[in-house]
Amino acid sequence: MDDLSIVVLNHNGKEVLNKCLDCIFRNVLPNNCQVAVLDNRSTDKSAKKAEKLYDVDIIEGTNEHGFITGLNTAFEKALHPNVFFISNDVFLEPSAVHNMVIALETFPDSILQPVFYWPDGSVQNAGMKWYWPGYGYADKQGGSIHTFYVPTIVTTTAIMMTRKTFYDIGPFDTAFAPAHYEDVDYSFRAKKKGHRLLVVGWARAMHLASHTISKQDGDHGTSDRCHRNRLYLIDKHYKGIDKTLRKAAVHVLDRAGRLIGMR
Predict the structure, then answer these.
(1) Strand bridging mode 57-60 / 32-39
(2) What is the dihedral of CA 97, 99, 102, 106, to 10 degrees?
(3) Contacts with 141 (C-beta within 8 Å, 6 or more apart), sequence order
(4) How many CB atoms are closer than 10 A to CB 3?
(5) Spatial contact of 87 and 71, defined as CB atoms under 8 Å apart
(6) What's the half-sphere exposure (Cβ side, CA atoms, 13 Å) at 251?
(7) What gap in Å lies between CA 22 and CA 54, rounded to an integer?
């Protein structure tokens, strides 16, 4: 594969953006590779500073729907037909890009993610598992697999797919804005369209977790937003008594979680 765009979503990432780009440029990149910073209305001049230090294109984002605006803009405005979307708090290991590219060449109809690790080296996630009535939890099993792993859900922290796949599935749903559960929705929609979800076990990355989202609006309201988005996702993908029972259970469990958290 010679035509790849690596698009880094950035919002006020002065603490992490340069390290993210350093890690990208330590990789063996395809011959015709665009590296771009998609700046989602930063106020800290981090993208402008990065432009002076690295051979990167700057894509101006509107930040209209937060993280989801970044996802959609990356796949719509990338220069090349194969796109690797990366959050600015993801630090790729030196072989990650090469291994992801090989995987996409092998399975061009797939949506791929690397295995994410915490700074201490422990597995953060190799995709997500989906539990009744409507909760996604990190799947750490795939972190011990060094080939391909099929998760229930791929996370949107860093994903690779062709623009053809993106347009076949359609854009990420902005009703989940600014983020949370858009990855579950997209994974469900991808599978309905016949696309594979794959974790590339030999592509590794460290992830600081939620840096981009927390920089936009902090942690306040996250639990309420997750509750809202869980209910919306259930409305969107389930029917009849199954939907009714799932929503009732989510109301009870989320309420209990809030009460426990207040103690």
Answers:
(1) parallel
(2) -120
(3) 126, 149
(4) 13
(5) no
(6) 6
(7) 9
Q: In this structure, are residues 169 and 190 in contact, taking their beta carbons and an 8 Å threshold? A: yes
* Cα–Cα distance, 142 to 135 (Å, whole number): 19
Closest CA to 56 of 38, 29, 72, 35: 35
**How far is it, in rounded angstroms, from Cα 173 to Cα 156?**
13
Q: Whole-prediction pTM value? A: 0.94
Domain ranges of the chain: 3-218, 220-263
Stretch 183-208: mean pLDDT: 97
The verdict on domain 3-218 having CATH code 3.20.20.70 is no
Q: What is the tens place of the pLDDT at every residue in 238-262? A: 999 999 999 999 999 999 988 886 5
Distance, CA of 239 to CA of 218 (rounded, Å): 34
Cβ(28)–Cβ(1) below 8 Å: no
Q: Is the pLDDT of residue 221 over 70?
A: no
